[in-house]
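Input (structure):
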């Protein structure tokens, strides 16, 4: 894919390095000349421009991008970039960084945002996931809150031990997508047996999260 990243600070450069390693075409757009450092991400295209200016984005060819990532440290800038990318250039996928969790409610499709990533919220969720056994932890919000990626680690004495996946009576609007067991990533099949310590990842709406807890007996 061709991916544009607005903001070439530490976050933007780190994302760019990961993406170029995965064989994507990356364009970094940065306003501050001091942050222009082509040697830090040699395989990326670097553009010295203000990503909030329509003319600059036109000159950079943003319409050719499959994805735009608004990764600056300023939420206002990230919102403007997202809106321009979606409304003026019809970019298919727009991902925006949320710096202040209090602003998270703004990062919706009204501003052209498909996926909002709040670093503080994500870090908090990962801490919970690391220590919470037998509880449901929300890891990521998808599609502006329409669904969530949630995780449950089965406790040592789970009543589900040895039972097949097909025995789970999961609510509508939920799906078990992955089982993490030790170093393995298991795509669940109907006859796969559950084990204590399994990390179960579900995609589900917020309304049925309590029903998932009930189905797992946690």
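Output (sequence):
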């Amino acid at each position: 894919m061709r991916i544009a990243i607005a903001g070439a600070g530490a976050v933007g450069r780190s994302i760019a390095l990961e993406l170029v390693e995965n064989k994507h075409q990356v364009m970094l757009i940065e306003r501050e000349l001091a942050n222009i450092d082509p040697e830090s991400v040699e395989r990326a295209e670097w553009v010295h421009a203000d990503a909030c200016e329509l003319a600059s984005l036109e000159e950079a060819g943003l319409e050719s991008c499959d994805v735009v990532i608004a990764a600056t440290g300023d939420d206002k800038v990230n919102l403007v970039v997202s809106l321009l990318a979606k409304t003026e250039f019809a970019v298919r996928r727009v991902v925006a960084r949320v710096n202040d969790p209090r602003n998270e409610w703004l990062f919706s499709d009204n501003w052209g945002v498909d996926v909002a990533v709040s670093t503080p919220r994500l870090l908090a969720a990962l801490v919970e996931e690391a220590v919470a056994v037998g509880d449901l932890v929300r890891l990521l919000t998808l599609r502006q809150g329409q669904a969530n990626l949630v995780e449950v680690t089965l406790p040592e004495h789970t009543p589900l031990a040895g039972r097949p996946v097909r025995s789970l009576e999961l609510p509508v609007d939920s799906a078990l997508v992955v089982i993490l067991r030790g170093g393995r990533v298991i795509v669940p099949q109907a006859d796969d047996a559950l084990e204590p310590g399994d990390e179960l990842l579900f995609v589900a709406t917020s309304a049925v999260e309590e029903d998932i807890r009930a189905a797992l007996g946690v």
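Notes: The two ends are 41 Å apart (CA to CA). The mean pLDDT is 88.
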